[in-house]
Design goal:
The chain is mainly beta. It is 3% helix and 53% strand. The chain has two helices and 54 strands. Strands 43, 44, 45, 46 and 47 form a five-stranded antiparallel β-sheet that branches. α1 packs antiparallel against α2. The chain is elongated and about 90 Å long. It starts with a helix and ends with a strand. The relative contact order is 0.08.
């Protein structure tokens, strides 16, 4: 499995020759590789990505860096109330975790006390704690004086003594002497309770803090005198302000990002803006850090749009591609630092709570990955267009939700079909009127038919009026092509794809969403086989609209995928499912004889550990097989005659949500934001 995964990653990085060499390596006690990676997209791979901080319990919130016993380290706090330390060179945990907080550790900073590195942490329990990172002991604990926990903190030296500035959840600001643990009064008086972020700077040889607020205002305070010395001109009305500091062409500057999508640089001595605003985010700047790359200051910004950008503060230009790294949801920049001569950025996913480490000094690779779909791949199908075998993909990318790929080369064929139609969850292909067409359904209630030769939309029709088309298939009924759809309303409908008109009444019976649909000929009748959230599999006569028999039951959760095949000359259906994502799983796919309504294999043995989200059937070596994909990232191949698994599972780094099999036996896998095409060796 490691051999196969390494080969897949080589192909994702654009080096197909390396992928082939890896798969040719013999593994002791294992047979030769059965599948070859022909090509794969690489939208979510990047040579700058180093590793993910791992070994902790639960999600992480904040991280920083320091040097412990000569090693550059990352220090992070998490939901488990503990503080963890990793070696930045190896990604390995250093020593045991530091426990003491009663609740999540939201913020972390570092400081040198008595010549040794220490961590300063704040969290949900209204305390600030100081930890000796050499001995792994807590050296002090004090109440932070805030109501609701600590939201932000920095460390700074004032009059030769280490201090910390803390911001509470309510927006209040406090200054503390780290040696005594006492609060220093008389600072930040008259300041509102809208503080959001804080950074430090040295002006005229004295320590200052720059504080950005939820109101978009940015103030500068002298920590020696306790006085506010300036307020930077604000173009961020009522928009939260993220702040960091840097030295730009010898001048101490504040770098400010806000909800208006722009990053601005201000000279802290003159109060003047430096250069023009930098943009690139589509929905506001949520997090911000600065670091030196090479010998020039840069800003690393995280936006509400899920992108992370690197900008040269001297030129105001974006550097390289955005950082991606496979985070789920919004991405936050939690730290940026120089260690061992290299510049690192630490990014946290909003949804998954993982922190990934990026080396920003790594140059781009020579081989260029194929650009994949912009969103998560939800559906794939194969067809032949003008003599070329092609793949059609559907994803939840708003602007590029339907793409066509040359199966042989991996190059995109033409422009995206669907533009600003929302996420596309279902794709089927068929020949309508002598033209190769794709049928797509998604978030906007509509099914669209596309001519794959011209790239033009043939027709569209409103289907279920329930916010999403959840299943699409094609068939031939009475000599004419039809489209069969399933929706969130539990109904199954049949359509004329040339006119967009419904054929007959909708079919009702499922209690809840229709999650999958396939077609087959059963006893001479063209039928639709549907799987629903109610855990049932139903067979419908498309001519009469009647159910052929009682629902097929046996799944413990919703049915998420359906495919059909001939097994020993009789029509069968393969169904896969589970309930609520990862929480309940059937253990694999189930095989049903559509003539008798009986389960043949219940379930296929040694099944998946999570929901089976995709199934596709094919004839391999003259025998019917099914390929199953799951949220566990595994793809398995089964012989439908014996019910036995064939070969080792194929491993993918993200959940597998879509599968398709080309007529020549090439397997198309949609995983995460990527697709891969595999051929049998």
């Amino acid at each position: 499995m490691r051999r196969q995964l390494l080969a897949l990653d080589a192909a994702r990085y654009g080096d197909r020759a390396l992928a082939a060499r890896i798969l040719a390596i013999p593994v002791e006690g294992e047979p030769a590789a059965e599948w070859h990676v022909r090509w794969a997209t690489g939208s979510s791979v990047d040579p700058r990505f180093r590793f993910t901080l791992a070994g902790h319990d639960g999600r992480l919130w904040e991280a920083t860096t320091t040097v412990v016993d000569g090693r550059s380290c990352a220090v992070a706090g998490g939901d488990d109330g503990r503080v963890w330390v990793w070696d930045l060179a190896t990604g390995e945990l250093v020593g045991g975790s530091l426990g003491g907080h009663d609740g999540a550790v939201y913020v972390v900073a570092t400081v040198v006390l008595d010549g040794r590195p220490h961590a300063v942490t704040g969290g949900a329990d209204d305390t600030v704690r100081v930890w000796d990172l050499t001995t792994n002991e807590q050296v002090s604990r004090f109440l932070n004086g805030h109501d609701g926990g600590v939201a932000s903190l920095v460390t700074v030296v004032v009059d030769g003594r280490p201090h910390t500035v803390t911001i509470g959840m309510g927006g209040t600001v406090r200054l503390w002497d780290l040696t005594t643990g006492r609060r220093i009064g008389g600072f930040f008086t008259g300041y509102s309770d809208k503080a959001r972020a804080v950074a430090t700077a040295v002006l005229d040889g004295r320590p200052h803090v720059v504080i950005g607020g939820w109101d978009g205002r940015v103030r500068v305070w002298d920590l020696t005198t306790g006085e506010q010395v300036s307020e930077l001109p604000s173009d961020h009305d009522d928009a939260l302000a993220m702040v960091s500091t840097a030295v730009v062409e010898g001048r101490p500057c504040a770098v400010i990002g806000s909800a208006d999508d722009e990053v601005r640089v201000w000279d802290l001595v003159t109060g003047q803006q430096v250069g023009r605003p930098m943009d690139g985010h589509d929905d506001g700047v949520r997090t911000l850090a600065t670091a030196v790359i090479g010998d020039r200051p840069h800003a690393i910004t995280g936006g509400s749009d899920g992108t992370v950008l690197v900008c040269d503060l001297t030129t105001g230009e974006q550097v390289g591609r955005p950082l991606t790294g496979g985070h789920d949801g919004e991405v936050h920049v939690v730290a940026a630092t120089v260690a061992d001569g290299r510049t690192y950025a630490l990014l946290r996913g909003e949804d998954d709570g993982t922190i990934r480490v990026w080396d920003l000094t790594v140059e781009e690779q020579v081989a260029r990955p194929l650009t994949g779909p912009g969103g998560e791949v939800r559906a794939v199908a194969t067809t032949v267009v003008d003599g070329r075998a092609c793949v059609v993909t559907g994803s939840d990318d708003w602007d590029r939700s339907v793409l066509v790929w040359d199966l042989a080369t991996g190059q995109q064929a033409g422009e995206p079909l669907a533009d600003e139609v929302g996420g596309v969850w279902e794709v089927a292909t068929a020949v309508f009127g002598g033209r190769a067409c794709a049928v797509t359904g998604g978030d906007d209630d509509r099914v669209r038919v596309w001519d794959l030769t011209t790239g033009q939309q043939v027709c569209e029709f409103l289907t279920h009026r329930t916010n999403r088309v959840s299943a699409v298939a094609t068939a031939v009924l009475d000599g004419r092509p039809v489209v069969v759809t399933g929706g969130e309303d539990g109904r199954v409908r049949v359509w004329d794809p040339t006119t967009g008109e419904p054929l007959g009444q909708s079919h009702t019976g499922h209690d809840g969403r229709v999650g999958a649909v396939a077609t087959a000929v059963v006893d001479g009748r063209t039928c639709a086989i549907t799987g629903g959230a109610d855990g049932t599999v139903r067979v419908w006569d498309l001519t009469t609209g009647e159910q052929v028999r009682e629902p097929l039951t046996g799944h413990r959760g919703g049915v998420r995928s359906v495919a059909t095949a001939l097994v020993e000359g009789r029509p069968h259906a393969v169904t896969g499912g589970g309930y609520g994502g990862d929480y309940l799983c059937d253990g694999g796919a189930r095989l049903w004889d559509l003539t008798t309504g009986e389960q043949v294999h219940a379930p296929l043995p040694e099944g998946h550990q999570k929901t089976v989200t995709a199934v596709v059937t094919a004839v391999l070596d003259g025998r019917p097989h099914v390929v199953t994909g799951s949220r566990d990232g595994l793809v398995r191949v089964w012989d439908l005659t014996t019910g036995e698994q064939v070969g080792r599972p194929l491993m993918f780094p993200s959940p597998v949500r879509a599968l398709a099999m080309a007529p020549d036996g090439q397997l198309v896998v949609g995983f995460g934001h990527e697709i891969a095409v595999l051929t049998r060796c």
